[in-house]
């Protein structure tokens, strides 16, 4: 069995089905990106894997153990950072480190926390509160906190969506570097196929909701280390990108067609406005299409 | 133009002084015309200046400088207020955390909340009658605590309910212990609301102390007021009213400074 395994997982919120029959297997050390439209249910999916939500049906296992509750074996980077605003950068990460390694000496904890702060280049901001940091810096704290827990698997929920393009690219490089250093299993949620292609081994699209489900898995055949600029010229890149985007757009148009009603044209012919009115002010009775057997049009030349 | 700007700059000082001036004028006019029993501002000052200019003097049990009386009252308020916070904050937390607890106790809280200190005090005195000499102090403390804790209870409960799910998720993912969740997540997240409650509670505690002293005759601003009423020295009643108002105002300002510190944090 794969390392992380979801079988026919479904989830509804008060009657509205969000996720339907989700099947997912992720191998140990794999980097998988899940791409989907906003509102499709990506956060719901990651919360299920994290154990913060319970599925209505289906089975979820991590390392052959059923997922029932959240735990520090799954490091999460939440979409909205979820840093505690009353703690400094150092204290936020320390809280996580203490939770995972309660028996470490104070010195060892301190050293560990500082190592991860340095890893995301935040040493100068060590004693600042999240409110004093930019969005990109907060996101890095959030990543450092998840990594410092040394989890078996990293769950990243759109970690970079709220950032400007430049910061985003920098952090993508950082995530790529960190991953290549210790090859953790990663599930990355994103709304940007390019980000997925640049970072992941496989990309799995989530169809548009309601009742979203995972599409086929697209393997990224581009060798690592990947170069952001060169990647654009890779023949496989363009095809992959086109296929993924096409799949996602199709999943949406199918949905749209499924919900619209069958249209019926009115059973009436256009009137000829040149025909004079009758005494009552009405024109002739409307012509029903189904009654028309023979149409002739006179053309004045 | 320049003068205009200057006036604008100091209107925070001038306009309040103007407002007070208007009120003193009305006081002067009415004491001279319709309300003959009301002492005029000048008479009030003349009769009170001993208490104001020698604010800490002690001439007798019920004849002391006004700040000395205020000090007695503040000490009693501080004790009762501390009691209110110690009891009120945990109740607020339970209300915020548990729907069961809310369903069970919210109705009784809503019934007890509007009861006036004047109704609680006799009960307090009866409860502590066996304490003999201390009965009046304990009764007053009981009354202050019971009346002043409600804003703390209710605001803390609202604050706990308003904690963003994100913070709770962090606690869940890290599997924080109950005490750690309480001290690292729940309390810091609720502090701004708690302090709003603390400020409102202090206002009520100060209201209650005057009533409690009036009824028990303890030395303090309220006790002094009641004694001077019985002695028909109306000037001192006005002195007490002004003192109570100013002290209440200062306390509220101090608390709102503290409150703001926690709001921005
Ligand atoms: N706790 C909840 N209660 C009710 N509906 C929810 C809840 N969480 C998410 N939803 C709904 O589920 C759908 C998917 O949400 P979400 O997983 O946040 O999407 P995404 O992360 O892909 O943008 C949305 O329509 C949202 O309104
Ligand atoms: Mg989301």
Describe, in short, the structure shown:
The complex is a heterodimer of chains A (301) and B (265). With 301 residues, chain A is of the alpha/beta class. Chain A contains 7 helices and 10 strands.
Write the layout of secondary structure elements.
The complex is a heterodimer of chains A (301) and B (265).
Chain A: E1 4-13, E2 16-26, E3 31-36, H1 42-50, E4 57-62, E5 65-66, E6 74-77, H2 89-100, H3 106-119, H4 135-148, E7 153-157, H5 165-182, E8 185-190, H6 193-199, E9 202-206, E10 218-219, H7 235-259
Parallel strand pairs in A: 3-8, 3-9, 6-7, 7-8
Antiparallel strand pairs in A: 1-2, 1-4, 4-5, 9-10
Helix pairs in contact in A: 2-3, 2-4, 3-4
Chain B: H1 2-32, H2 41-53, E1 58-60, E2 63-64, H3 66-97, H4 99-112, H5 117-127, H6 135-161, H7 165-173, H8 178-216, H9 221-230, H10 234-264
Antiparallel strand pairs in B: 1-2
Helical residues, percent of chain B? over 70%
User: How many structural domains are formed by the residues of chain B?
Assistant: 2
Strand percentage of chain A: 15-25%
Cα distance spanning the termini of chain A: 80 Å
The pLDDT mean of chain B sits at 90
**What's the overall geometry of chain A?**
elongated
Overview of this structure, please?
- The complex is a heterodimer of chains A (301) and B (265).
- The longest helix of chain A has 25 residues, at 235-259.
- By secondary structure, chain A is an alpha/beta fold.
- Chain A has a domain at 4-73 and 151-254: P-loop containing nucleotide triphosphate hydrolases (Rossmann fold).
- The mean pLDDT of chain A is 86.
- Chain A has helices at 42-50, 89-100, 106-119, 135-148, 165-182, 193-199, 235-259, and strands at residues 4-13, 16-26, 31-36, 57-62, 65-66, 74-77, 153-157, 185-190, 202-206, 218-219.
- In chain A, the strands form two sheets. Chain A has a six-stranded mixed beta sheet, sandwiched between helices. In chain A, strands 2-1-4-5 form a four-stranded antiparallel beta sheet, covered by helices on one side.
- Chain B has two domains: 2-38; 52-262, Orthogonal Bundle (MetI-like fold).
- Helix content of chain B is 82%, strand content 2%.
- Chain B is built from ten helices and two strands; from the N terminus they run H-H-E-E-H-H-H-H-H-H-H-H.
- Chain B has helices at residues 2-32, 41-53, 66-97, 99-112, 117-127, 135-161, 165-173, 178-216, 221-230, 234-264, and strands spanning 58-60, 63-64.
- In chain B, a hairpin with a 2-residue loop joins strand 1 and strand 2 (63-64).
- In chain B, helix 6 packs antiparallel against helix 8 (178-216) and helix 8 (178-216) packs antiparallel against helix 10 (234-264).
- At the A-B interface, helix 2 of A face helix 7 and helix 8 of B.
């Amino acid at each position: 069995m794969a390392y992380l395994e979801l079988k026919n997982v479904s989830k509804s919120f008060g009657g509205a089905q969000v996720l339907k029959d989700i099947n997912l297997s992720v191998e140990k050390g794999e980097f998988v990106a899940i791409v989907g439209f906003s509102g499709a249910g990506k956060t719901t999916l990651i919360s299920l894997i994290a154990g913060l939500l319970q599925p209505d049906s289906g089975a979820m296992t991590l390392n052959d153990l059923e997922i029932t509750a959240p735990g520090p074996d799954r490091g999460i980077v939440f979409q909205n950072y979820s840093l505690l605003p009353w703690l400094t950068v150092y204290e936020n990460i320390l809280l996580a480190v203490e939770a995972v390694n309660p028996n470490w000496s104070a010195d060892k904890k301190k050293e560990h926390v500082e190592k991860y702060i340095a890893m995301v280049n935040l040493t100068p901001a060590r004693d600042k509160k999240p409110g004093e940091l930019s969005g990109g810096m907060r996101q890095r704290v959030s990543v450092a906190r998840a990594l410092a827990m040394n989890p078996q698997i990293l769950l990243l929920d759109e970690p970079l969506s709220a950032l400007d393009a430049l910061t985003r690219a920098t952090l993508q490089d950082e995530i790529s570097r960190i991953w290549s250093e210790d090859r953790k299993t990663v599930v990355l949620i994103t709304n940007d196929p390019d980000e997925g292609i640049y970072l992941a081994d496989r990309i799995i699209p989530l169809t548009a909701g309601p009742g979203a489900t995972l599409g086929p898995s697209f393997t990224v055949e581009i060798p690592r280390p990947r170069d952001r600029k060169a990647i654009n010229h890779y023949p496989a890149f363009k095809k992959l990108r086109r296929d993924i985007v096409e799949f996602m757009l199709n999943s949406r148009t199918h949905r749209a067609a499924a919900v619209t009603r069958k249209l019926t044209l009115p059973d009436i012919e256009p009137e000829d406005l040149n025909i004079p009115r009758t005494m009552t002010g009405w024109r002739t009775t409307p012509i029903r299409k189904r009654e028309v057997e023979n149409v002739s049009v006179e053309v004045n030349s | 133009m320049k003068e205009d700007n200057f006036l604008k700059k100091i209107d925070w000082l001038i306009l309040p002084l103007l407002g007070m001036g208007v009120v003193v004028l009305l006081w002067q006019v009415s004491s001279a015309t319709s309300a003959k029993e009301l002492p005029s501002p000048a008479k009030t000052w003349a009769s009170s200046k001993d208490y104001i200019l020698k604010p800490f003097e002690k001439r007798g049990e019920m004849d002391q400088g006004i700040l000395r009386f205020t000090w007695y009252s503040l000490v009693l308020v501080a004790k009762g207020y501390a009691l209110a916070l110690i009891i009120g904050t945990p109740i607020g937390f339970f209300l915020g955390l548990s729907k069961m607890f809310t369903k069970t106790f919210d109705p009784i809280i809503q019934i007890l909340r509007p009861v006036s200190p004047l109704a609680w005090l006799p009960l307090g005195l009866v409860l502590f009658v066996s304490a003999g000499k201390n009965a009046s102090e304990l009764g007053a403390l009981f009354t202050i605590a019971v009346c002043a804790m409600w804003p703390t209870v209710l605001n803390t409960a609202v604050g706990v309910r308003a904690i963003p799910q994100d913070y709770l998720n962090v606690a869940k993912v890290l599997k924080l212990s109950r005490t750690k969740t309480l001290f690292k997540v729940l309390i810091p997240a609720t502090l701004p609301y708690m302090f709003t409650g603390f400020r409102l509670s202090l206002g009520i505690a100060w209201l209650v102390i005057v009533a409690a002293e009036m009824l028990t005759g303890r030395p303090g601003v309220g006790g002094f007021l009641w004694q001077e009423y019985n002695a028909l020295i109306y000037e001192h009643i006005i002195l007490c009213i002004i003192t109570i108002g100013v002290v209440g105002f200062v306390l509220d300002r101090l608390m709102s400074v503290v409150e703001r510190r926690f709001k921005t944090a």
